[in-house]
Structures are given as C-alpha cells and as structure tokens.
Amino acid sequence: MITLSGVELRHGERLIVSGLSGQIQTGSLTALIGSNGSGKTTLLRAIAGLHPLSSGRIDLGGLTPPDIALLAQGSHLDRSFPITCRDVVALAATRVGPFRSIGKDRLAATNAALTRVGLHEMGSRPIQALSAGQFQRVLFARTIVQDARLILLDEPFTAVDASTTRLLLSVIQDWHAQGRTVIAVLHDIELVRRHFPHTLLLSGQTASWDALPAPGLQAA
Amino acid sequence: MLDFLWEPFALGFMRRALAGCLALSVAAPPLGVFLVLRRMSLMSDVLQHGVLPGIAIGAIFAGLSVWAMGIGGVVAGLAVAVLAGWLARRTGGREDSQLAGMYLLALAAGVALISTQHSIDLTHLLFGNVLAVDNAALFGMAGVATIALPVLALIWRPLVLESLDPGFMAATSGRGGVWHLIFLMLVVLCVVSGFVALGTLMSVGLMMLPAIAARHWSDSLSGQVRVAVLLACLSSVGGLILSYNLDIPAGPSIVLTAGGLWVVSMLTGPRASLWRQAIPNA
What we know:
The structure holds two protein chains of two kinds. By secondary structure, chain A is α/β, with parallel strands linked by helices. Chain A has a single domain, classed as Rossmann fold (3-Layer(aba) Sandwich). Helix content of chain A is 30%, strand content 25%. Chain A has six helices and nine strands, in the order βββαββαααβαβαββ. The longest helix of chain A has 16 residues, at 162-177. Chain B is mostly helical. Chain B has one domain: ABC transporter involved in vitamin B12 uptake, BtuC (Orthogonal Bundle), CATH 1.10.3470.10. Chain B contains 14 helices and no strands. Chain B has helices at 3-6, 12-37, 41-62, 66-91, 96-115, 122-127, 135-164, 166-172, 176-193, 195-198, 203-214, 221-246, 250-268, 274-278. The A-B interface holds A 48, 50, 65-66, 68, 70, 72, 76-78, 81-84, 87-88, 91-92, 94-100, 126, 128, 146 and B 37, 39, 154-155, 157-158, 160-161, 163-165, 167-174, 218-221, 223-224.
C-alpha cells in the first residue's frame, strides 16, 4: 500500500501540489488525471523517488527502487541511437552493471515481452526504423521485463494509434491481474472511465480521489 | 616507385610516432562514437583547450617532462570536464555559451602560461611534433590505450544504457553519474596522451572525425566503433606519410586525412550519405 500524507511538491519556487493525502492499495489500478501543469508527472516522479518532496511524506509500504518501474514519456529518449529493439528491452535489467551478463533467462524474458507487444519479428531492427506506436510498444516490453511490483506510466498512449492503445491497455490489465500496482497519467477521460477503477484528479492545488468529472465534461 | 610510402617509416622516430598513433587510433575513436551519440561533440572542443593550462603549469614546474605535462593536462582536463558537467546540470543542457566561454579562457590562459617558458615551442605543443615522440610519449599513448580499451569494455553496457536513456538509468540504478565520470576520465586520458605527437588542438581530431564519419557506414553501435577504429588507423598511417613528405606537422596532416575520409564517407557511405539524399531513388 502506498500512503501519501500531506505531500507538497514544488518546481523551484512554484507550488504545484500541496496537502495531498490518501492511499493507493496494493494491486490497484489508478488513473492520475488533471490539466496540463497540475503536477501529474511530478507526482509520479515523486512516488518513484526522483523528485524531492518539499513537505509531507510518501510511504511505499516497503517497496525499494528495483520494485518500481517508471515509464517516462518516450520523447526523452534518443530515437536515433544505433541500438536494436531487443537490446533496449534486454537492458531493462535492473541494475545493469559492468560484471553482470545478460543471461539465458533474461533473453527469454526479453523475447517473450517482445512477443507480448507484437514485435517478435522486429527484435533485431534498429529503433530508428520504428514508428511512434511501435516504439511505445518497445518501451512497454521493457517495462514488462522490469518485472516491478509498482508500475508508473506517464501518458502511455500519447501519439499512439487506436489498435496499439488497445494492445497496451491489455498489457496494463495483465499487470493488474498479476496483482501489480499500476498508476498511469492519462488524458482521455472516456478511456479512464471504462478501464480504470480508481482515479486521482489533480486540479489547482486540490486533489480528489475517485471523483471523475461528469460525463460529457472533458478535463482540459 | 612507392618509396614515399615506406621511406618515412625507415626512420626510428617515425616508427615510434606510428606505433603511438596506431595505439591511440584503437583507443580514442570508440570514445568519440559515444561522445557523438551523447551529443557531447562540443565537450571534446572544451577538453582540447582545457588541458592546455594544465600542461603549461606542468611544464613550468618540471620543465620539458612528458610526465609532468601529462599529469598537469589530465588534472586540468578532469577539472574542466567536471565543471562543464556541473554547468550542464545547472543550466538544463543549455550550456553551449558557457562551454564556449570556458574554452576561450582556457586557450588564452594556456598560451599565456606557455609564453613564459622560452624553451617550449607553442606550435609544437598545439599542433604536434613527431620528432619529440620519445619513449615516454610512446609509453604514454600505448599505456592509455592499454587502460582505456578494457575499461571501456567493462563499462560498455551501463554506458550504452546511460547514453540512450539517462532518465531510465537514474530511476533504476541511480548510479549513472559514475559511468559518465569514468567515461570522461578515459576521454581526458586519450586527449592528453596524444599531445606530444599530435598537439593538444589536434589530438581530439583523431577521436572525433573517425567517429563522425562512422555514422555514415553503420547503424549498429559495434559497427560504428569498428569503422571508426579502421578510419583512425588509416588516418594515422596516411597522415604520417603526408607529414613526412610534405613537411607539415603531424597533427594537422593526420586530422586532414581523417577529414578527407569523413568527406568520402559522407559521399559514398551507405547510411544517410549526401549522395543518397541528392538522388532519393539511387
């Protein structure tokens, strides 16, 4: 269980989130929604331990960094890097180090993950050759291989077509069925309504749990 | 008939220079490939200027000792690299103006310091002098290559991951900075070790130009590294032959050869070459 108590987040001087408290149950599936700049990404990074809290605390219930997988928005990654899909996924290995080889097990897990996202034939292709949707599938495959108990997804369906969104949603549902905790930053309220049992809406500096805007109202 | 090809290497100092440059040609280009991939090409400029004050201070304290100058250069290079890295983090990657400021300052300080030492020829220091490649300089180049290759092989995987996706590396292991620092140390060692033969301003050329040219030959990382090493070796041999026959300093002639190979790569290389862009369906 993840417990947020009085969490306050700042970007430099600017206050983004304040007084956020609540709980996210182990194995739950939560959508994090809110307008641009409401602090969704920052909160996700704070849960992953990558953004300092200016006050309050986040109790991860004993999870350590290797238990957490954060899928940041893919645009940060250099798509012209000369590397194959299979290598990107295999490098997900928690704690890649100089003396750790990529063994048979990891290779099998890598190939299984690529198959799950429908890219088993693209394994040896360089990532330059991929479309935005295919690239997002590679990043999902990498997240599968991370085998984390807490999975944080930042706008996973941006720039992705409808069929890829369906496929990736089914991967998220697999994770949910396996008892992993999933928190995803999303924009599409209809999609959230249909697939995500729990929500956290950030707006201004207030937060509301499990309260979606009324149907027809689209959160900007 | 082909005497001009062999004749230079009948001389001992040319053979020493060749051995040293070939050692550096194996060690430096793989680092250059990573610098290009990490979009840190400008960093190599900063380093080549940044080592100069250190070399000058080494020379002021210990005279014309390759070791003293080398150690001074390594210390100055590391200081500049760390400072530049800190600036990059502080300014969120918009550090090019600061980097430009740093290397102008370093070059001016280096030249000013060297001018106080009348025993040192500034041209030799900046552009290389194969006659000065003594055993110490040769051992320096060979020693650096001997250290750099196994260390790079060891940090290869984390370095690839850190170059590809630093955010992911930071999130999963939090030790990305260590690999980055080791990598910068290797770059500094390579730049400094080449200064006797190639000159401080030119030794980066053997690291960067083959790496930049290699992008036109291969779309895999290991392929680019192999091509870069091959091009660097060709540049060293060709450049030294040119240097001997045309009586120009070794640094510029090796860099010019590497630059020529780069142009050839752009025109004829199978990947993203100018030629292909000009004729889309060729």
